[in-house]
Amino acid sequence: MNEHLTQRKFNILLATIDNYIKTAQPIGSRVLSKNYNIGFSPATIRNEMSDLGDLGYLVQSHISSGRIPSQKAFRLYVDYILDKLYKSDESSSSLMSIRKPYERIVEPEKLIKSSSQFISEITQYPVISMLKKSDKMRLSHIELLPISEYNYVLLTLYDSGDLNHTVISSEQIIEQNELIKINFLLKKLFLGKNLNEVYDNLEEFSSKYKYNDLFKGAITEIIENEKDKLSSMYVSVEGLSNIFKYSEYNDLSKVQSIIEYLEDKDKIVSILNSSDNFLDIKVGDENNEQPLVENTIIKSSYFFNKNNIGVIAIVAPMRMNYELSIEAMFKLSRRINGLIIRGDYYER
């Protein structure tokens, strides 16, 4: 708790924040005394609210109106919720099913996208996400397998969890002994190599592969395409239409501004790249970009081999449901990072 706040002031502030989150309306001392079991008279509450205003935690738009929380109040509220979460290992019953949708996710992109959709559905806020790709990821498995008489599939699995499979058709049957030689060469030249090394070894593969020109060309093209795909940045936006549910976005120019901002891939990357913390929350003008200064952004980062590989973030009005949103991100983040650390986030 802030050193300037007594427990009584803090309880009154919490009640004021709760009312504003639920109603988007200011509240006065009489209504607060009636609706919340604080245990103080309206006169006492009025004096405490006046002090909270002097301290910068409450604001009053009109002399005759009640008060609403300031950005400073929401910042204190965020820190209060985080402190409770970090001190408690108990899982909220409303989030107990959080692990089930992610038990058998095939690829990191699908993991991040599914997680973003899930968070957007339970919070009803827009969610942006990014999966960082690196040319340092290494090829942990490569194999050419027959799937029918004239069709084969090239499987590649990287240590990032990216699993790719591409079908190659042939006009002639590849004999088993030839298939063994192809797989031996693929493993010898590419296994354990990073994307750049794999790409550099393509020329050697072309010179040493003496069997089927169609296969040689197809395999070379597949690996070239994978390098382009895997070294790019994956960005997604889920639940953008949710902003229309909140009175803060009744102003059409404000809606247009934030939609245009969140549809710009470069701007999303800029938002999500600003922190590598496990959980990072910026309230109001702590967000530097103009369209976001009246919003709160809750970001969670995901790590693989100590490298930040992805970020998911809720973008919401400052008057958001902080308890639900922070707890959802906190629990989900721990779950996903646990899956990644154990290597369970893709099928083997």
From TrEMBL:
Keywords: Repressor, Stress response, Transcription, Transcription regulation. PANTHER family: HEAT-INDUCIBLE TRANSCRIPTION REPRESSOR HRCA (PTHR34824). It comes from the Bacteria. It comes from Finegoldia magna BVS033A4. One of its GO terms (biological process) is negative regulation of DNA-templated transcription. HAMAP family: HrcA. The keyword ATP-binding does not apply. This is Heat-inducible transcription repressor HrcA. InterPro entries: GAF-like_dom_sf, HrcA, HrcA_C, WH-like_DNA-bd_sf, WH_DNA-bd_sf, WHTH_transcript_rep_HrcA_IDD. Negative regulator of class I heat shock genes (grpE-dnaK-dnaJ and groELS operons). Prevents heat-shock induction of these operons. Belongs to the HrcA family. The gene is hrcA. Residues 109-324 form the Heat-inducible transcription repressor HrcA C-terminal domain. GO terms for molecular function: DNA binding.
